[in-house]
């Protein structure tokens, strides 16, 4: 019996979640240091783009999870990694609105 390879979308989903959180954090910290309007706009555009990409990849992973239950644990971990970006963005928005930056 041939072994089913681990879905590549799980790997891609983890990488996208990691790098989108990393870039968002770098933009956020740089904005806090410089208070640049350009960085605020770039952060907003990046957040919207990353959200669209993350939702698209998350939907594909969930479809794979439904049809390929062989690696369901890895898929669940990937989904959790991707969903962890939501509270991170909410925290950044709270910090920006609380300090009126």
Strand-helix topology:
Layout: H1 8-34, H2 37-67, H3 72-83, H4 85-98
Helix pairs in contact: 1-2, 1-3, 1-4, 2-3
The radius of gyration is 16 Å
Strand content: under 5%
Helix % is: over 70%
Query: Termini distance?
Result: 59 Å
Shape: elongated
Structural class: mainly alpha
Mean pLDDT, all residues: 90
| Number of strand elements | 0
Which consecutive residue ranges, at least 5 long each, have pLDDT under 50?
none
Question: What is the helix/strand order?
Answer: HHHH
Number of helices: 4
Largest sheet entry: none
Q: Would you kindly provide a brief summary of this structure?
A:
By secondary structure, the protein is mainly alpha-helical.
Task: List the main descriptive attributes of the protein structure presented here.
single chain, mainly alpha, elongated
Descriptive account of the structure:
With 101 residues, this protein is mainly α. 83% of the residues lie in helices and 0% in strands. It has helices spanning 8-34, 37-67, 72-83, 85-98. Helix 1 (8-34) packs antiparallel against helix 2, helix 1 (8-34) runs parallel beside helix 4 and helix 2 runs antiparallel to helix 3. The model has no long low-confidence stretch (mean pLDDT 90).
């Amino acid at each position: 019996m041939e072994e089913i390879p681990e879905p590549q979308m799980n790997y891609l989903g983890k990488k996208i979640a990691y790098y989108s959180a990393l870039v968002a954090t770098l933009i956020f910290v740089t904005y806090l240091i410089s208070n640049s309007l350009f960085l605020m706009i770039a952060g907003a555009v990046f957040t919207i783009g990353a959200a669209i990409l993350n939702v698209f990849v998350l939907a594909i992973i969930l479809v794979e999870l439904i049809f390929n239950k062989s690696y369901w644990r890895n898929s669940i971990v990937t989904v959790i990694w991707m969903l962890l970006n939501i509270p991170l963005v909410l925290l950044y928005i709270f910090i920006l609105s609380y300090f009126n930056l």
